[in-house]
Each structure stands twice: as structure tokens, then as C-alpha cells.
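Contributing new records

If you add data, match the layout below exactly. Sequence lines come first and carry their own label; structure lines follow with theirs. Keep one chain per record. Anything else will be rejected by the validation script.
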Amino acid sequence: MKMLSKKPAFVLMLTMSTASFYFAQSTQDTLTKDNEIEQVVITGVADIAKDRKTPVAVSTIKEAQIVEKMGNQEFPEILNSTPSVYSTKGGGGFGDGKTVIRGFTQENIAVMVNGMPVNDMENGAVYWSNWSGLSDVTSSMQVQRGLGSSKLAIASVGGTINILTRAADKKQGAVVSIGVGNDDFHKSLFAYNSGKSQTGWATSFLMSRTAGSMYADGTQFEGYNYYWALGYQKGKHDFQFTITGAPQWHNQRSTYSTIQNYIRYNPDNNGDPNIKYNPDWGWRDGEVLSNRVNYYHKPILSLNWDWKISEKSKLNSVFYGSFGRGGGTGDLGSVRTIAPGTTTAANYNITSYPRTTDGQINYDGIFAANAAINLNTAGASSTLIRRSSINSHNWFGTIISFNHKINDNFNFTIGTDDRYYYGYHYQVASDLYGAGGYKDATNQNFYTAPGNVYTATPRTVTNTFAPKPNWNPFGGKINNQDDMIGYNNDGEVLWYGGFGQLEYSNEKLSAFVSGALSNQSFQRIDSFIIDGVTLLNGQKAGFATSATNPTIIQATAANPALNTKTGFKDIVGYNAKAGANYNINDHHNVFANIGYYSKQPFLNAVYPNNKNFLNPNLTNEKIFGIEAGYGFRSGIFNANVNIYRTSWKDRFQRRSNISLTYPDPSNPANTISTTSAYANIQGITEIHQGAELELTANVHKMLSLTGMISVGDYYYEGNAQGNLFTETNEQIGSDSQTLYLDKVKVGGSAQQTAAVGFVFKPTDWVSLDANYRGAKNLYANLNLLNFGTERAGQNGALELPTFGLVDLGLTFKIKLNDPKQFFTLRGNIYNLLDKVYIAESNTNVLANLTQDDFKTSTGANDTAAFAAYQAIPTWNGVKQSNQVYFGYGRTWAATLSFNF
């Protein structure tokens, strides 16, 4: 087992004491009114929706709720009781959670921290493991569903998650806490707030450590979190400097396993799935060795400057920088050997090599097979190793916003949003798995040319790099190019944006119109191709076709030569939004909003298929949204009702982690199995529409109730085109495959959700809370392999079984003589009833197919395929050949904290 790093005792004590202080302070300082959010957090450029004024659908999660409910959950799971939100743990690794709002994945949800964008500038991704410490420093989290109120030109197709951290001038105090949970989970934390001095200075500090294992087997992890804020306020100026980061490593469960394998590898052999099963690890010398490890450190530094120029004018600015370093591991290459249970030699990768009897990776066999390879005579990729795919970056940006109050009713805001991003993408060897090295031939600049025939020259790499995060807050150096294998390309993005908004408000009516314009410039740099020589199809211009064909290869219009640098491609995007809220009286209000986005595609759509070739069909994605809502407020009961519709045209989507077996291009008689193929799909049109209801009731001073229900209808309109590739960017199958998607349901999110909960607080030192949430109309993810025929499209997506989960929490507080000093003991049980459920499926194998669904390429009945399909049983109505992630069973967490 990978040992957790040992730190000096005083660091651990400091961490523990910080933790406790912060827990208590955060609970104590949480305010009870939405309009008081700005008093305890850094707001600045953040666009915070205000109740009965901002015309958007919004839910606010406050600090006390986060502290109490979090336990050992993933940070986005705290949102699961809000309408139209479906958050899961993904594969189940630490920080591998996913969030979907109104059917839109988190790549198309704007995640903001104190108004700063978090989504990756190349692909829009949000890696929650990079932000695993945010729950420790969050003072409030606001979810705006739909296009939202942000003035920036951001990709808030499904919604906006505004995460607001604690300000440096929070009340003086400290907290120390220790937490434990299932599977050796433990956490220690210390935090201190100085409070604001008479001279205007304030500081806030936090540090924590979390380690143990997640629920799935082989998912050990270790993560740290640090946060430091320094504030200064004098006269009309308020400065807040913050630095925060969360260096971590964690073993993952990245592979979607078939339900058959979950059942096959259940040690109880009772026909039930072993939902803890994880195929991505094995034993070596009595210790856990994972093929899939994620490690990263993404510190972010920011300076907020708020200047109250006059009673009518103010300037809010933030300047920020981030230096992300790290990546994720997986297998690379193959080894030729006679594997256990076989009699002839064959090439094996990590997926195809026979597993142990309990379904784990047979590392002893792989190490022995690798050790037998003579690298002096072996060809390229002839050993099976663990590689690290590096995804590092440097990111700088600024947002400057000027607001002026024209009169008592009108005000306007104008501003600029500017960013620069440089991403580093390459692979290095992480573990040679017993081999003497790895021969790589992907850098095309190493070659010989006997007879003017281009011949790649493999390089042998022996240096390995452990999957551990770099603690340098300024990033540090990247790896030496001599150690890079697989691929080596950089992405460069320039972003220039401007925005403006005009608002009107009186006692009854508030309204706004806003617009934003941005130019994104994309450049791709590939250091492994030969500048001006490598052609689009991989051939090399100026060389002979082959040893027997001296014809010189030439570039053509259809097969052009590629350059190492593509040059920048400028793409302009914009949005326009308008909305209004009308307060009928003190109890009732109505609102509506409308918006249109012309959204630039991501870098992998500008230069698709990981090649330095501009997409000839490049076009902006078009999003149109409309929404209306009603609100009711009273001293006892609050309610919100919303209806919405969003259309999304010309979408480009990349789907990863696809498992399949395909013919070996170099020897079609053999096959290759992989769990990490990807598909590029373009020309997608989606419709997302639905209704939401959210309720709260304070029925007694001891009892409060919450509830919500959301009903959605998310589906594709028309067909799309897709291509399939290996992880090393080799195309699988034909150039373009039609996906028959018309009226197929959009997957990955429950289209109907409901929740109900209560908090019972008989005294001020004890409280009990419980929550039930249900998910229905949950469909499998879009998979290019499942919709290649019209009949498959007519059959539709796989609907997963409905499920409901119960969570329970209990809090005890022990007060001391000093009101600032108290102990808090919190316990949580998640999935109290130990419900077994499928949280996500990556395939769409239906259980009611007939012979007509199995045809050969000539249209004849494929009886063999149909017979094989019929032989596969079902589990809970789902074919066991589907590749899924099961949700967690019953888990628990407990925290003891001391505030002083």
C-alpha cells in the first residue's frame, strides 16, 4: 500500500488545531439572511443573486449547512437537495465527483470562486480534486440555474455555481477539529481569524489534511489544503489578498465495469454485485498498486481591490494567477508473452492480460513478462508500463468592473474580463512494471531515412516519475523533453472580453439588460511532429512512399502538411440577456428572463482529433434560454416555482473512457481491447425543458422542513456525426459515423428528482436532521458505439432503475463558560438504508432487443450475436453487459471540533 507522507509533528498539530477552530467559527458565524452574504465573504466582482430582486432561479447553501452536511462527501454532493441538480461521485475516487444541472454537465456549468472562473480554458472541465479544500473555506455557495445573472461571457449553459470564500476580516477566533469516517477516512484541520484591527488589517489562515480510502476498493488518497487571506481596509479602499491550494494524490476507479464483473468478483458469490469492485488496481509485494492515480496541485493567488469612488460609483477588481501541476496515470504499451491460462504468445495490455481470481490486475505476471523483454532487440511499445499524462498549466487573468448609480432607479455596470492560459500536455513514465525501460517512437523528429524511406527511431526511456503533487505554489519547471513519451503538445488560449449591464429597480420592479462580447484565440503546439513535413494522415512529405515505391510523398489540399505551431485562431462569441422581477406584495413575486449565447467551441473542437489541423466545419454553439418563476415568502413558509426551456445547437462533445475491442491496424487478424478510447461528436442539438418547485417551512422553533421536486425533459433533436479514437489518437473505424439521436434522451442526469428533509432542534445544544432524495428517469451516457443504426436510435437510451437515498445527521454542542469556547460533535450517515443503485452507465444495452436489432453489414440476421445477447442475464431489469458505476453503499463520518 502506498504510505501516507510523514510530516513533522508540529505541522500535524498545527493542522489539527486549525481544523477545529475553523469548524466552530464557520458554524457560529453563518448568517441567516440571504442579503447578508456580502458581509462575511469576498464578493467584489462576483455576481450574487438577491432574493425577490434578481430574476433568476437560485438556491443558496450556507456555511453551517456545508460544515454539517459535508462529512466525507464530495464537495458538489452538497447540492443534491437543490432542484434539477444531479451530483455523483463519478468512479468513486477522492475528488472525482461530477455535477449536472438541468441535464448539462459541469463542462457547461460556470463554476466561479469569488467571481473568478474555474472551468478549464481548453475544455471547460472542472476537476473537483483540485478544489478538494474549498469546503473548508467556503462561507456560502449559490447555485443559479439557467443562464444566470453573471455579466461575464462565460459558459453558463446549465447554470452557475458561485463559491464564496471567507474574508480576511471575519470575526476573531480559532477552531481545531478531527474527523473520522468509513474506510480509514480521517481529517484534521486548524483555522484562525484575527479579526479586523483598528488600523484596518485582518488575516485568516487555515490548513487541513485528509487521508484514508474512499468506499471503492483500492482508492487510497492523501490531500492537504491551505488558505491564507490578508485584508486591509482604509477609507474608500478595501484590499483582500488570498492564496489557496489543495495538493493531493488519489487512486482512482476510472474504468466502467460490466455488471457481470461486479457480480463475478463478489467474494460472497451470492449473485449480488460487489459495488466496491475496482478493476484498476492489484497487489504487488503485499501492497496496493494502482494503475490509475491522479495527482495535482493547483494553487491560486488573487488580489481583490474594491474602491468606493463616491456615493454613486465603485470599482471592483480582481487580479489572479494559477499554476497547476500534475496529471493522471494509466497503462501504455503492451507485452508479448504466454499469459496464465494460455498456451501461445500474444500481445497484452493492462485490459487484456488475464486477471487474478478476484478480478484484480495480475501485477506479478506483468512484472515477470516485462522483465523477460530484451530492449536491445525489441521494437517500440514492447513493454507494458504505467505512464503519467501531464495536464499542467499557467493561467493569469483579471476582471475589472465599474458600477455607477445614475439615480435612485437606474444604475449601469461595465467591465472587462481578460485571461491568458498556457497548457502543457505530455506523457512520462511513472512505473516500468518490472521492465528495463520503455521504447517510444512517437516523437517523429527521431528517424532515419534508408533509401529515402522515413523510418522512426525508437528512444529508450528509463526515468520514472512518482505520482506525487508538486508543492511549489508557483508551479515550477516541467519535465525534460528527453523523458516525454506518447505525445507532447501545448494549448495556448488568449481571452479578451467586455461586458455591460443596465439595471432598473424600484420598490416593486427590478429589471436588467446585459450583454458580453469576447474574443478567444486558440493555438495548438505539437512538438512531436516534423514542422512542415508531417501530413494530416501521418505520412511524411518529401520521403519515398516505400522501399519498393520510390514515389515522393507530397502534400495535397486534402492531406496538407502540418506545422508545429498552428498560429492563433480568433473566434468571437457573445451573449445577450434580459430579465425582470415584480414584487406583487410582501409575499408574492414573479420573474422572467431570456437569453441567447453564441458560445465559442473548446480547443479540442477547434483542432479536433488532437492534430494541428483547423476544423473546417468550425462554428459557434448557439444557446437560447427562457425562464419564468413565481415566489412566495412568509414568516413560516417559502416557495419557489420555475419553468424553463433551453435549446443548444451545433454542440461539439468529446466522450472519454470508452471500452471496446477493435481490429489491430497492423494485424487485422488480432484484436486490441481498451477502456480509454474517446469519441469526438459534432453537430449535436439538445433540448432541455422542465419545471422546478422548492419549499422551506419553519413549522415550529424546534422544527424546520425542506422539500423540492424537479421534472425535466432532456432530449436530442436530429442526428450527429462522430469519430472514434484510441487514447494515443489513432482513429478507429470509418472517418465519420452517423449517430441516430433524434428524440433520444440525454443521459448522465436524473430528469426527475425530489427531496424532503427536516431539522429538529429541541435545545440549542442538540439537533437531528434527515433528508430523503430520489432520482428517476436517469438515462445512460451518450456512447458512439450504441447509436450507429436508425433502429438503435428508435430504441432510445437505456433508462436506469429509480432509486431513493436517506441521509441522517446528529449534532451535539457543549458550551463552556466563555461563550466563544465550545465543543461540537457532528455525525453523519449517508445512504442509511444501504441502497444498491446504479449512479451512471456508460453504455446503452437494452434488455428487450429482438433479432431485428442484430443484423450483419449485408442486412442478414446475425443469429450468433443475438444468441450471445440472449445468454447475458439482467440485474434489476438492466442487461449485465452494461458498463456502469454503482453508487456508494452506507457510509459514515464524525467530527469533533473545539472553538475558542
